[in-house]
Design a protein that fits this description.
Two copies of one chain form a homodimer.
Chain A (H helix, E strand, L loop, with lengths): L1 H10 L2 E2 H11 L8 H13 L3 E6 L7 E6 L1 H33 L1
Antiparallel strand pairs in A: 1-3, 2-3
Helix pairs in contact in A: 1-4, 2-3
Chain A binds a DNA duplex through helix 2 and helix 3.
DNA sequence: GCTCCTATTTGCATGATGCATATATTATTG
DNA sequence: CAATAATATATGCATCATGCAAATAGGAGC
């Protein structure tokens, strides 16, 4: 979930509500996202210095908290990409092992 | 973790201690496994009827609890394979999206 | 006897996630 | 204009997987 938010913010800076919709559209995660979880993650990411935020008063609707990715956030996202590539490889191993056993 | 245990038990029936070692060898999961977690999962799988167990007194060393996969366990493992294939696809999507953004 | 390996179990803490709910502002619809 | 829906953020509580630590117990080798 954290890497998904960082990736979407690498794409472009935006606010939490739009991130919730983007997460569903992009299909990185199955199903619809829980708003509470997303906002909590964003606050946590800001605590850790991976994103920064500022209030955006202008525009329609309620005030939005606009998030953007920091330099540190980009580095952490790169590390996440490595981790995810590893997980993907492990899943492939799992699936090939399962298929092999199923044949016999 | 649960699907990994079911897969290893599809391969052959065995006991918890050997499963811990197999999990590290097979590389389904990074690093070494925590015994407490493995045994707790096995008890949980038995509660859910996905595996069955019996004490194996014979042989050297302390008594072993021999686990084997049930019919229901095989079905649940098949469902896990579907889920994992879906997760793998989502990770591929994530990585390709990340690489694309990194180029520009 | 002492230590190590095998084998299982339990307690406690943390971190991600899900569901529900509270809140305030704007847009829409009857 | 009043009621409702959509936008936008936040908090509380529960559950589940995981990790660290420690306890127990039998057998093997020095």
């Amino acid at each position: 979930m954290q890497p998904c938010l960082l990736l979407l913010l690498l794409r472009r800076s935006t606010h939490g509500y739009e991130l919730i919709q983007s997460l569903s559209e992009f299909g990185f995660i199955e199903g619809e996202m829980d708003p509470g979880s997303v906002y909590r993650h964003l606050r946590r990411l800001e605590e850790d210095g991976l994103v920064s935020s500022e209030w955006q008063i202008q525009g329609s609707g309620p005030a939005k908290r606009l998030y953007r990715l920091t330099q540190e956030g980009e580095e952490v996202l790169a590390a996440w990409a490595q981790t995810i590539a590893g997980n993907k490889a492990r899943m492939e191993k799992f699936l090939s092992c399962y298929e092999e056993l199923k044949e016999t």
